[in-house]
Design goal:
Length: about 210
């Protein structure tokens, strides 16, 4: 086990320390822990909260987290990213976006001097309303190239057997061990604030 967090504590500001994996480093305001969840309150359009576990490092990572939102937003919708390899300010991540119509989009992303979409897919047959819990799984494995693959499904349902988004990438600087993290984001086009992204049941293992 590289990292794990059930968020069974109370922290007024920030995420405190994970059950396994050390202390969380949080950038942005609005992070707290309570009632068995980590919370990222996005108070305005364009708001972002980033929480990372910098002492966790690996080139082979299999990460899972539960995520939900507390209210609908217009525009392109709020998002939660699960980061599977973070080196400095660069990373590989899987992003789940909630659409105003309930549609769910899954995107694998490379962040390195800007964001690059590796693969983006609407998740067929999956819709999510505020309060519905989605389970996100991301695997980041290998170097030169790195394989990035992700899937998302409704928590409590059977996990899909195939990866919804999969790609390879060999960007210099990311072909080494890195940390893991979570990013909550509300696009500039979104309205309906404040909006809370909640996370729970984080598990990070070496596949």
């Amino acid at each position: 086990m590289l990292a794990a967090d059930e968020f069974e504590r109370t922290v007024a500001s920030g995420f405190g320390s994970a059950d396994t994996g050390g202390g969380w480093t949080v950038v942005g305001s609005g992070a707290s822990v309570g009632v068995g969840r980590g919370r990222m309150v996005l108070g305005q359009s364009g708001a972002q909260v980033t929480a990372t576990l910098p002492t966790v490092a690996g080139t082979a990572v299999d990460a899972v987290v539960d995520a939900s939102i507390d209210r609908a937003a217009t525009g392109s919708g709020p998002a939660l990213s699960l980061v599977g390899r973070r080196v400095g300010s660069a990373d590989y991540r899987a992003r789940v976006r909630w659409g105003a119509d309930g549609a769910v989009t899954l995107t694998t992303v490379r962040v390195s001097g800007g964001e690059t979409t590796l693969r983006s897919v609407p998740v067929a047959g999956l819709t999510a309303a505020p309060g519905d819990v989605l389970r996100v799984r991301l695997q980041v494995t290998g170097t030169a190239p790195t394989t990035v693959r992700a899937r998302v499904w409704r928590a409590g349902a059977t996990e899909p057997t195939t990866w919804a988004a999969e790609s390879t990438d060999a960007t210099a600087g990311l072909q080494q061990a890195g940390g893991v993290g979570l990013v909550g984001y509300l696009p500039g086009s979104a309205t309906g604030t404040p909006l809370t992204v909640a996370v729970d049941h984080l598990s990070v293992v070496a596949p």
